[in-house]
């Protein structure tokens, strides 16, 4: 079985620049798990409160759920913390196609010495539970009910997993960690933004010992993220500042009910990457955002563009123009 050699700890103050006395273990994964340690993104900007919540999961085995609007980098936040700790992280999307059998495992027919035999193939949950990995459940509020109830016991501190078909009880590895991300907090699709999410069982939600919210960052920090991710725009900070200002206007308009689509930080980065390709701010915006908007909302988008860039946005042009 793979092990995680926790040979030393590091001060959070030194590792993440956050003023706290907390120390966290550093991992040194062995065997087949090294490939699961995420790569470090040196340009990544950490939110202090969310980072501390995630670190509590790694250092103290807390079950941490990150909630927030789309595109805020919830999953990436967990991965980048894991990357700096050297901790293997396995990311699973709980979409509507992931069944209980996929999650837990199933009997499969294999050939052994020319004879067909039935063997139990472990799903991702028992595989991760027995290893020193951080299991990241993406889109947690979109999981199927049969999958969600499998997690009920596992979410408890040191919670075990019973495989009824195998008459086995699996106990978690000492360094197994569990994280989740969700666009809602189990209330369902109240905003109309997230079709497919479920109203969650509050007895299960209660088992998440830490719930943190990651929403849109202050404009200055969001600009830093875009400049860090898109090197071609690092000499044009004023342009990026205007782009983030535009994104903020769409978010306020969405909150007021004037737009049905808002611009997430992910979309701002896509817009910036398009500018690096097409060298045209307006065309890049149409390809990244405007073409997603309803026709009757595009004049408002053009108004925001005029306000931020002092230029016209031709919303009548097709995406290929």
Description:
- The chain has 321 residues and is of the alpha/beta class.
- The protein is 36% helix and 17% strand.
- It contains 13 helices and 11 strands.
- The chain has helices at residues 12-16, 48-60, 74-85, 100-104, 124-129, 145-148, 151-154, 202-205, 219-229, 237-255, 265-278, 281-288, 298-309, and strands spanning 8-11, 23-26, 64-67, 89-93, 105-112, 115-122, 134-138, 161-163, 168-170, 177-182, 210-213.
- Strands 4-7-10-3-11 form a 5-stranded parallel sheet. A two-stranded antiparallel sheet has the order 1-2. A two-stranded antiparallel ribbon has the order 5-6.
- A hairpin with a 4-residue loop joins β8 and β9 (168-170).
- It is globular and about 70 Å long.
- The model has no long low-confidence stretch (mean pLDDT 84).
Question: Which properties best describe this structure?
Answer:
single chain, alpha/beta, five-stranded parallel beta sheet, two-stranded antiparallel ribbon, 13 helices, 11 strands, globular
């Amino acid at each position: 079985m793979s092990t995680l050699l926790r040979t030393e700890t590091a001060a959070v103050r030194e590792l993440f620049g956050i003023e706290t006395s907390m120390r966290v273990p550093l991992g040194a994964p062995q065997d087949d798990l090294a490939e699961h340690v995420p790569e470090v993104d040196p340009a990544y900007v950490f939110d202090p409160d969310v980072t501390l919540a995630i670190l509590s999961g790694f250092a103290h085995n807390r079950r941490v759920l990150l909630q927030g609007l789309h595109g805020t980098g919830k999953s990436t936040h967990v991965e980048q913390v894991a990357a700096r700790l050297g901790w293997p992280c396995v990311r699973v999307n709980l979409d509507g196609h992931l069944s209980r059998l996929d999650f837990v495992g199933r009997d499969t027919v294999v050939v052994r010495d020319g004879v067909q035999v039935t063997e139990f193939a472990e799903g991702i949950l028992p595989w991760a539970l027995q290893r020193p990995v951080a299991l990241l459940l993406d889109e947690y509020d979109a999981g199927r009910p049969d999958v969600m109830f499998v997690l009920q016991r596992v979410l408890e501190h040191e919670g075990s997993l019973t495989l009824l078909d195998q008459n086995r009880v699996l106990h978690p590895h000492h360094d197994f960690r569990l994280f989740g991300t969700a666009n809602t907090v189990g209330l369902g699709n109240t905003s109309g933004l997230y079709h497919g999410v479920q109203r969650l069982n509050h007895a299960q939600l209660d088992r998440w010992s830490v719930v943190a919210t990651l929403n849109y960052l202050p404009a200055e920090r969001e600009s830093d993220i875009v400049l860090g991710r898109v090197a071609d725009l690092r000499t044009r900070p004023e342009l990026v500042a205007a782009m983030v200002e535009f994104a903020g206007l769409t978010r306020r308009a969405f909150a007021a009910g004037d737009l049905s689509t808002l611009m997430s930080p992910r979309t701002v980065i896509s817009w910036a990457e398009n500018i690096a390709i097409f060298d045209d701010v307006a065309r890049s915006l149409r390809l990244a955002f405007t073409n997603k908007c309803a026709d009757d909302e595009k004049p408002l988008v053009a108004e925001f563009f005029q306000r931020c860039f002092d230029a016209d946005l031709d919303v009548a042009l097709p995406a290929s123009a």
